[in-house]
Amino acid sequence: MTTIAAIQGDSWAVIAYDSRITEDSRAFTLPNISGKVAQNGPYLLGAAGDLRAINLLHHTFKPPAPSPSMRGARLNEFISSKFIPALKTCFDDAQYGEKGAQDSSVIAVVNGTVYEIGSNYEWCHDQRGIYAIGTGGTYALGALYESNDGRRKKTLTTARSSLKSALAIASLLDVNTGGNIHVVTQKFETS
């Protein structure tokens, strides 16, 4: 249904996504205002899987906000103890998914940090700072590894360029990925 990819930098994160969704053998192109990634409070939130998850992340979910200076172990603890339970409650209250699981993968960016969240609400970080989800995710991930030689991009400009290229490749190889490619950046502002 989609491709969402992200690169984690030292004090920033960049996320890119396509605008095509497929439902019942029909392709739709989402307008910019209702894209697959939404700014929701201090978060950039995107989902791959069911459109219902995107709808909830955009219009229903009220995520708890961490301190703007929170990073590292403290932010990980916050995501585990506050954000994930709130996300699960939102999905459960909306009767999305089965008890204890849902049907989508989520990428959440907060304080310049990327979290890839699976259907059982587990999250992970990638040592190289490279992420991709959705039906075209493996194509995008391969393109990012090739363009990065398996390493994290050092600059915001090269990360944005790599993500655009990766999404373009995913669009060529995955019928569920296409339309406009959007790129959004979140920087961690140190006080």
Task: Report what the structure shows.
The protein is α+β, with helices and mostly antiparallel strands and 191 residues long. It has one domain (4-187): Aminohydrolase, N-terminal nucleophile (Ntn) domain (Glutamine Phosphoribosylpyrophosphate, subunit 1, domain 1), CATH 3.60.20.10. It is 32% helix and 27% strand. The chain has helices spanning 51-59, 72-93, 137-148, 156-173, and strands at residues 4-8, 12-17, 20-23, 26-29, 37-40, 43-48, 105-110, 113-117, 123-124, 130-133, 182-187. The protein has a five-stranded antiparallel sheet. The model has no long low-confidence stretch (mean pLDDT 90).
* N-to-C span: 39 Å
> What general outline do the C-alpha atoms trace?
globular
Q: Spans with pLDDT under 50 lasting ≥5 residues? A: none
Top CATH class:
Alpha Beta
CATH topology: Glutamine Phosphoribosylpyrophosphate, subunit 1, domain 1
What is the number of domains? 1
Q: Write the H/E string, N to C.
A: EEEEEEHHEEEEHHE
Estimate the strand proportion: 25-35%
Give me the secondary-structure category: alpha+beta
Mean pLDDT: 90
Largest β sheet strand count, sense and barrel closure: 5 strands, antiparallel
Q: Report Rg.
A: 16 Å
Tally of contiguous helical segments: 4
Q: If strands are numbered along the chain, what order do they take across the biggest sheet? A: 5-6-7-8-9
Helix content estimate = 25-40%
How many strand segments? 11
CATH superfamily: Aminohydrolase, N-terminal nucleophile (Ntn) domain
CATH architect. name: 4-Layer Sandwich
